[in-house]
Amino acid sequence: MYRQNRRDRTQVQPVRLIGLILALLLAACTEQPTPTTVAPTVAPTQPSYPLTTKAAPTAYPLATAGASPGPAGGAALSPVGTPAACAVQADTRVAEAWTRVRAGLGCPRRPAQDIPMAFQEFEHGFMLWKGVAALQVYVLFAGDTAHPARWSVYPDLWQEGQPPSDPLLTPPPNLEQPMRGFGKVWREQPGVRDGLGWALGREQGGQGLLQVFDGGRIFLFEGKRLFALIDADQEWQELPATGTLP
Fold it and tell me: Which residue range forms the structural domain that includes residue 137?
C-alpha cells in the first residue's frame, strides 16, 4: 500500500510542474508591453537676422561734355559740373573742333597764330612742319584696333646744302620718299620710318594756323586739315575743319 501511494505521488508531481511552466509561458506571451512614448522631433528654430539692404548709390553731378578732367586741362569744374570760362578764347576757325576735345586740351593759352606750314601724308600717318621758331616736325602715327593714335615732335635740323633724300632708298611704285626736313626725321629718328611707312605723295607747303592750349595744340593746314594733339597721353585726332583762313 505504501509503495503504491508513493508511486502515485511521484507520477503526479511532474505533471503539476509542467502545467505551472506552461501557465507562466502563456502569461508571458499574452502580456501586452507598455508602449514607450517618444517625443516628436522638433526642427530647431532658425535665428531671425535682419536682411542687409543694398544702399542706393550716391548721385554725383555729371560733368558737362568737354569739361576739363584735371589741372592740365586748365578749365576747372564749377560745383555744378560746368567748365569755368576761359580767359583766352579759341579761334573761331577751330572753336567747333575744340569743343569736342576740350576735356583734353583745356583752355587756350594764347591767341592763335597764322604760320607757314608743310603737310605730308604717309601710309600710316602724317607729318606736319611748324614754320616758326623753334622749327619743328610733328609726326602723327595712325592707330589701330590695338594701339591708339600717337604723336611725337622733333627739331627740324635739316639745312640748305644737306642731301634732300637718300638715293639708296627706292620707294615702292606710287609711293614717295620724304624730302628735306621731313626726310631727315623719317630716316634718322628711331621708329619713325617703320611707324609711318612711305609717303603717299609729295609734301605740300602752305599757310596754317596754330593755337596752343593748356593741354595741347591744334593745327589747321590750309583751312582743310585740322589736327588736335593732346599732351597728357600723346594722342591725336583729326577733326572736321569747318572754318576757313581769312
Answer: 88-239
